[in-house]
């Protein structure tokens, strides 16, 4: 089946983050609401303009209903689809289709979490499924450790190369005032940090922070009337191959190998056209896997690619230019923050602004490398 998408028919008109790092005294709903209000203002709109709400909250399976009530909205459509951190890229596909066919006019996509000040550790409603449970894994970390170990076995990937991902992320974070973790970080710092699930150490793991993010998506002709440059949505594609990694036949390849090519086809671009890449880096192995599966380097070459310095400041492929989940923020689900950073780059207002950028890719991961979703955004001159 030929992939179809309303390329450029919809655009991000507003965006915001809120409470990134520590938001003491605020609930997940407060944080999501703060981000939502800021994004609507950024779009030059009022809450009454919003007629579709897409939301995930880490502590409320009916978060879309809760946020609608919190904001005083009575939307035509509410969606709380949960695939983990990839959910927000999938929300964009649904919103684009509904906007294009006229079912809705303005979509608000929002997320918020207080997992740091509310508990201080990863907060997720998911847990190991029945295939994994007998082995008592650390959820979700042990699944990513398996993928990292297999990648090392098959391709000779080293812990030093995984550490290079964390070091690159910190390099970007040091230039981003919003980033939670700053300061020097070396390869040796990573290698000597506490081992949690071999071969993954503390430095291979994402942060535990608070934070919220939101975007407003509407038809491009309307977005052009807003106060900020519209960011056209060129593509959104998703793929799910498994829930538990115990069900895969190849731990070194994810469904990004499907969502990525479909997104490129929809957008009419190639990896070489992409000016920056925002990846869901819950663990350092994620970045390696997704760079390979999204065709920025060949399968098995991810280790040497990141080790070369290509993805850090001054490199040939800017990756996670806000510091990513490893050094900027990771409030349970990071996907929407990747979208916001990609859009900020295309607006020309990112903290670590990449010059002359026209196409950006944001990729989300859900579960234990289970759900993958890819969004490609552009500037007005890509239409």
Automatic annotation (TrEMBL):
User: Residue ranges of the Thiolase C-terminal domain?
Assistant: 238-379
Record field: transmembrane: none
* CDD domains assigned: SCP-x_thiolase (cd00829)
**A Pfam family this protein belongs to?**
Thiolase_C_1
Question: Can you name this protein?
Answer: Acetyl-CoA acetyltransferase
Taxonomy, top ranks, is: Bacteria, Pseudomonadati, Pseudomonadota, Alphaproteobacteria, Sphingomonadales
């Amino acid at each position: 089946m030929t992939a179809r998408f309303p390329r450029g028919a919809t655009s991000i008109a507003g965006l915001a983050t809120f409470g990134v790092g520590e938001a003491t005294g605020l609930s997940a709903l407060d944080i999501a609401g703060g981000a939502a209000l800021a994004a609507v203002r950024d779009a030059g709109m009022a809450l009454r303009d919003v007629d579709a709400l897409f939301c995930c909250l880490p502590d409320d399976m009916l978060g879309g209903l809760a946020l609608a009530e919190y904001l005083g909205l009575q939307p035509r459509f509410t969606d709380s689809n949960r695939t983990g951190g990839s959910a927000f890229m999938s929300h964009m596909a649904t919103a684009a289709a509904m906007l294009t066919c006229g079912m809705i006019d303005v979509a608000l996509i929002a997320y918020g979490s207080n997992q740091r000040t509310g508990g201080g550790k990863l907060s997720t409603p998911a847990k190991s499924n029945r295939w994994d449970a007998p082995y008592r894994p650390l959820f979700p970390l042990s699944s990513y450790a398996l993928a990292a170990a297999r990648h090392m076995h098959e391709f000779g990937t080293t812990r030093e190369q995984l550490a290079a991902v964390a070091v690159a992320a910190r390099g970007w974070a040091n230039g981003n005032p919003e980033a939670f973790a700053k300061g020097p970080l070396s390869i040796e710092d990573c290698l000597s940090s506490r081992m949690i699930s071999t071969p993954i150490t503390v430095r291979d793991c994402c942060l535990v922070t608070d934070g919220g993010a939101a975007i407003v998506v509407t038809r491009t002709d309307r977005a052009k009337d807003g106060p900020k440059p519209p960011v056209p949505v060129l593509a959104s594609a998703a793929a799910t191959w498994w829930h538990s990694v115990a069900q895969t036949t190849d731990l070194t390849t994810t469904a990004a190998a499907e969502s990525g090519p479909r997104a490129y086809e929809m957008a009419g671009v190639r990896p070489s056209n992409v000016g920056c890449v925002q990846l869901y880096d819950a663990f350092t192995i994620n970045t390696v896997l997704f760079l390979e599966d999204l065709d920025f380097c060949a399968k098995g070459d991810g280790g040497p690619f990141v080790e070369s310095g290509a993805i850090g400041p001054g490199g040939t492929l800017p990756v996670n230019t806000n510091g990513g989940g490893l050094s900027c923020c990771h409030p349970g689900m990071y996907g929407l923050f990747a979208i916001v950073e990609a859009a900020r780059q295309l607006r020309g207002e990112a903290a670590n602004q990449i010059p002359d950028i026209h196409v950006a890719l944001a990729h989300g991961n859900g579960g234990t490398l289970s759900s993958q979703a890819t969004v490609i955004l552009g500037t007005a001159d890509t239409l």
